[in-house]
Every structure is written in structure tokens, then in C-alpha cells.
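Section 5: illustrative case.
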């Protein structure tokens, strides 16, 4: 027997802290996409860059002492994910934000293991 779940309802509820992190990541990804599109069109949009990485990292559980290596990884990953969605498609954007959240959790565990 195959169960058909409603497509408009979540199967699990996320803790508020996780929802906040995903929301902020989503907004940051939209901004990165917008800035990259402006730069591709030949406009200097550097004044409009939104950097929520310190806040997002703190919510996820990093202690504020991110290295240059972490920051490089963060912005590279963010730029890559921002290229994978159509800004008009909220579902794609949410999927990429969730993927980035999961990547941050994995990175945090690696960081904690390596001390």
C-alpha cells in the first residue's frame, strides 16, 4: 500500500532555531543571486552585499572563531548554491537553503572533531 502525503504540508516540524537559520540562509542566498546577476550585467553591486555569515554561524553553533579557510568555504558554497535556483521558484530556494544548513551542520561536526 502506498501512502500519499499532502504536498502542501510538512511531515516534520523543525525547531525554531533551525527555522531561523534556514530563513536567514534563504535571504542571504537571494541576495547573493541578485548581486551576482548585477555584477554579470556589468554593475558594481558590492555596496549591496548582505553578509549574515556571523549570525548564521552563531545560530548553527560555531563559536565565532571561524578561520579564513572556513570563510572561504562558506562563501564558495554559498555562491555555488545561489547559482542552482531560479529566484522566482520559492521551493528551489528553500531546498538550497536547507542544503546549505545541512552543509553547515556537517562542517560544524568536522570542526568540533578536529578541535
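Designed sequence:
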Amino acid at each position: 500500500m502506498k501512502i500519499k502525503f499532502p504536498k502542501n504540508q510538512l511531515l516534520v516540524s523543525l525547531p525554531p532555531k533551525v527555522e531561523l537559520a534556514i530563513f536567514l540562509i534563504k535571504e542571504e542566498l537571494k541576495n547573493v543571486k541578485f548581486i551576482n546577476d548585477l555584477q554579470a550585467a556589468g554593475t558594481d553591486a558590492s555596496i549591496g552585499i548582505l553578509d549574515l555569515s556571523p549570525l548564521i554561524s552563531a545560530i548553527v553553533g560555531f563559536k565565532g572563531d571561524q578561520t579564513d579557510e572556513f570563510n572561504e568555504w562558506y562563501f564558495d558554497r554559498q555562491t555555488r548554491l545561489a547559482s542552482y535556483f531560479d529566484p522566482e521558484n520559492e521551493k528551489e530556494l528553500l531546498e538550497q537553503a536547507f542544503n546549505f544548513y545541512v552543509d553547515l551542520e556537517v562542517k560544524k561536526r568536522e570542526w568540533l572533531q578536529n578541535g
